[in-house]
């Protein structure tokens, strides 16, 4: 992304001062920061980051973001966040996208775990 562009996650910061630093290797400090950086990674097609930020016990062997129909991610809303303890958290979010011109909505309650000082996406419960 070009310098100074807004971050795809929706926070009022430039990409390089928001999710770009986590994509560059800095550890996300909270489950919400990791969730936002994962949303941005989906929006930017950063499959390697998505795999690396997924807990090894639950991540897929591979992730293909290039097979049509491709999603164009257009918005993220954080509904709520919670820490169950120092190493476990949840983020309830709604992500919007367009697939083939059709609007889609993904609502999920995601679970995160911190190991060795890094947060990982564990899994999520998709709302019906």
From TrEMBL:
Domain YchJ-like middle NTF2-like: 30-124
Family per record: Belongs to the UPF0225 family.
HAMAP family in alphabetical order: UPF0225
Identification of the protein by name: UPF0225 protein HJ583_011995
Species the sequence originates in: Uliginosibacterium aquaticum
